[in-house]
């Protein structure tokens, strides 16, 4: 003979799902936001070397910085 399951809170499954799901959603949003690190829309849309190797990628990552110097000052 066992004891019946006693719920301490009226919506404990929903609260548990919310507490567990919220960090997962924020982590996914943070990952998506970090995958486009400071690239301008023009830089993001540019075709780069190697883009033709995978015609339909399932994802992409862009990282960019702006260097306000002429190319000959940056590249040897």
How would you describe the overall organization of this protein?
By secondary structure, the chain is mainly α. The chain has a domain at 12-45 and 61-74. It is 42% helix and 5% strand. It is built from three helices and two strands, in the order αβαβα. The protein has a two-stranded parallel ribbon with strand order 1-2. Helix 2 links the parallel strand 1 (36-37) and strand 2 (62-63). The model has no long low-confidence stretch (mean pLDDT 79).
Features:
2 strands; two-stranded parallel ribbon; 3 helices; mainly alpha; 76 residues; single chain
SSE order and pairing:
Blueprint: H1 12-34, E1 36-37, H2 41-45, E2 62-63, H3 71-74
Parallel strand pairs: 1-2
Number of strands: 2
- Tell me the fraction of residues in β-strands, as a range: 5-15%
| Envelope shape | elongated
**SSE ordering:** HEHEH
Evaluate the radius of gyration.
24 Å
Q: Roughly what is the average pLDDT, rounded to an integer?
A: 79
Could you list the spans in which at least 5 consecutive residues all have pLDDT below 50? none
**Based on helices, strands and strand pairing, what is the structural class?**
mainly alpha
Helicity range: 40-55%
Instruction: Give the oligomeric state of the chains in this entry, treating copies of one chain as homo and distinct chains as hetero.
Output: single chain
Describe the largest sheet: 2 strands, parallel
**Number of DSSP helices?**
3
Major β-sheet strand ordering: 1-2
Distance between the termini: 82 Å
């Amino acid at each position: 003979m066992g004891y019946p399951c006693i719920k301490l809170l009226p919506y404990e499954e929903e609260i548990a799902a919310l507490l567990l799901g919220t960090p997962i959603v924020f982590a996914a949003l943070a990952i998506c936001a970090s995958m486009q690190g400071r690239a301008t829309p023009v830089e993001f849309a540019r075709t780069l070397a190697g883009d033709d190797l995978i015609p339909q990628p399932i994802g992409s990552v862009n990282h960019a910085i702006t260097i306000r110097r002429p190319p000959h000052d940056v590249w040897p």
